[in-house]
Amino acid sequence: MASPAPVTPVDNKETRKHEQIIRAALRVFAEHGLHGTPVPPIAAEAGVGVGTLYRYFDSKETLINAVFRDSKSRLKERLLSDLDLLHPSRSLFDNLWARLTAFAREEPDAFHFLEMQDHHSYLDPESRHQEQALLIPLGMMVVIGQRTGLLNDIMKPDLAIALFWGAFVGVFKAERLGYLTLDDDDLKRARDACWLAIANHNTPHDNNKGPQP
Amino acid sequence: MASPAPVTPVDNKETRKHEQIIRAALRVFAEHGLHGTPVPPIAAEAGVGVGTLYRYFDSKETLINAVFRDSKSRLKERLLSDLDLLHPSRSLFDNLWARLTAFAREEPDAFHFLEMQDHHSYLDPESRHQEQALLIPLGMMVVIGQRTGLLNDIMKPDLAIALFWGAFVGVFKAERLGYLTLDDDDLKRARDACWLAIANHNTPHDNNKGPQP
DNA sequence: AGTTACGGAATGAACATTCATTCATTGCGT
DNA sequence: ACGCAATGAATGAATGTTCATTCCGTAACT
User: At what angle do helices B90-106 and B184-198 cross, to 10 degrees?
Assistant: First the structure.
């Protein structure tokens, strides 16, 4: 083999165009919905011809799955990388909230796309597997948090996650639809309210309560 | 005018077919999404011909707005009728939660349809007005609750509503997608957790805490 | 008989996908 | 070094399909 084999991040022209189309598709999907966006506008947004798009993706459905996996893996990466989920604490919760907020703020299209409902009929098994890859670590964290007395263990872990995630999504959805504007303080207050919903209040425990302002 | 003028609930054959089509459309929309459902299947579900459907609704968009208004008004009716929002209390909150739960359980299609994102581009001013008709009373209730010391007043009312509503929707969405099964106890626990998120914890107040089991 | 409601085939527009062609790059014989 | 096939990427007009909407023959009612 004459060429030095690049292991993971192949960066030839093909790969770049592949990603370029995925990014463009994400923008258009986020704006007009899945059924709502024809393929040609995606190609136009990506700056390529329609035929070219079909060179890289077998079908619209394939493209949708690619966009989903791309967004979901970026969310997972930003949420979980370098994070010790096995030792839950209030500061870990704050950290997760901050990361989630950063994702929603810096990649609003991806955040919105992932919360759309209409892709669930398109998703293939691999994409569904990616859902689990994010949910399972979070579930483990909640289980440990409940065992250590940090979190209220009266709710089953999946319920606590659904509650918390739903609240977060609800807040940002309200902002996107114009019912609300959110500054940093609002987000902190929402975070603290969510913590109240899932934390354990029965017995005192030795976790720090975060720095005083 | 020879006919006895019926004031509100006109119940001739026309009105019944009108509602029949709306109900059918709701079922199909809830299953396949707005862009995702062609008009003919709606007519088939309603047991009428396509031409008949267009006799009653000018266009698919008109039909969507009719379905939206119908569902929204039923939600509003079930949530708010005979309820004294001006005197918030823990039991009022529980009452609201129970009504919301009943709606989600008994009219899952309507609940799901109203939470879909893709109708927002279709909605006409009248439909948008209906959104307000539900949100404004809830907002007032929160304002009063904050003034009386029942609710935490650190969050702006709209934020508290978005948080609470998002959590509720998130829980039922998780159930619909199969991530979760909810029994009555789960729902009570979720309700109590939501209450913790928005209630005032600083000073004791004289509201009852509900009956002990 | 006349009027109105109904249904579903017919219509034309919009769509996802294909394909014949153009264009750029590469490899090779000289 | 140069020209010239050959390869493969890129394109957007063309294709067949699906959709929203219309229209007209038939049935029901008055």
Answer: 140
Residues B177-193 have pLDDT tens digits of 999 999 999 999 999 99
The partner residue sitting opposite B35, judged by closest CB among A33, A158, A196, is: A33
State which residues between 52 and 111 of chain B bring their CB within 7 Å of strand C.
Answer: 52, 54-55
Chain A CB contacts of B177 below 8 Å: 120
A188 and A145: one domain?
Answer: yes
Give the pTM: 0.90
Domain containing residue B22 = 1-57
Determine phi and psi for A199, rounding to 5 degrees: -75, 160
Tokens of A127: 């994409």
In a domain, A209, yes or no: no
Residues of chain A below pLDDT 70: 1-13, 203-213
Residues B161 and B94 grouped into a single domain: yes
What average pLDDT does the segment B110-123 reach? 91
* Residues forming beta bridges with residue A151, ordered by sequence position: A199
